[in-house]
Amino acid sequence: MLDLDAHLTAIADGDADAFGQWLAGAEPALRSSLRSFAARVDVEAVLQEALLRVWQVAPRHTPDGRPNSLFRVALRIARNLSVDEVRRARATPVEDEAIERALAASEGEVMPVGPDPLLRRVIEACREKLPGKPAEVLMARLSSGGSEPDEVIAARLGMKTNTFLQNFTRARKLLAECLERQQVDLAVELS
């Protein structure tokens, strides 16, 4: 990195163009120096805050005779801001008694379980409209809860596996079409 202190006098005089030139040289290295904090803090926010502070302190900055003195100040500001953010984000342990009080207070509350009740009714209404064999196959597969292979379910229903799968595919297609007519967006509901 070239000595960016060449812009220091103009920056101290409030020259925004000079600060922009200093920034163009300093920003990549400054951003790279914060890489170790990226998992714990918003590095972009820290970087922006650090650069703002550098602009504010630049008129009072006195070079120490070594190259890139303002960059080293910026580096110190950015790293200190990152450490402050890590400390601020650190979770405070909660005492067991506080957890017990929160649990006792929430015992009477009803927590939502399962999907939207209206959606459940629409699905059930569409399922009831399925014709005989597709409805039978769909219910058999749902009842198994995924614990049985299709071959076993097909044999129990007295079908060949291929016939079972064709009926299941037909049931899915008819169910999807019915839900679509009811304006249920499957892509949204399944995401």
From TrEMBL:
InterPro entries: RNA_pol_sigma-70-like (IPR039425), RNA_pol_sigma_r2 (IPR013325), RNA_pol_sigma_r3/r4-like (IPR013324)
Biological process, per Gene Ontology: DNA-templated transcription initiation
GO function term, MF aspect, one: sigma factor activity
Membership in a protein family: Belongs to the sigma-70 factor family. ECF subfamily.
Superkingdom: Bacteria
Keywords for the protein's UniProt record, in alphabetical order: DNA-binding, Sigma factor, Transcription, Transcription regulation
PANTHER family, alphabetized: RNA POLYMERASE ECF-TYPE SIGMA FACTO (PTHR43133), RNA POLYMERASE SIGMA FACTOR HI_1459-RELATED (PTHR43133:SF8)
Record flagged with keyword Transcription regulation: yes
Name used for this protein in its record: Uncharacterized protein
Organism: Chondromyces crocatus
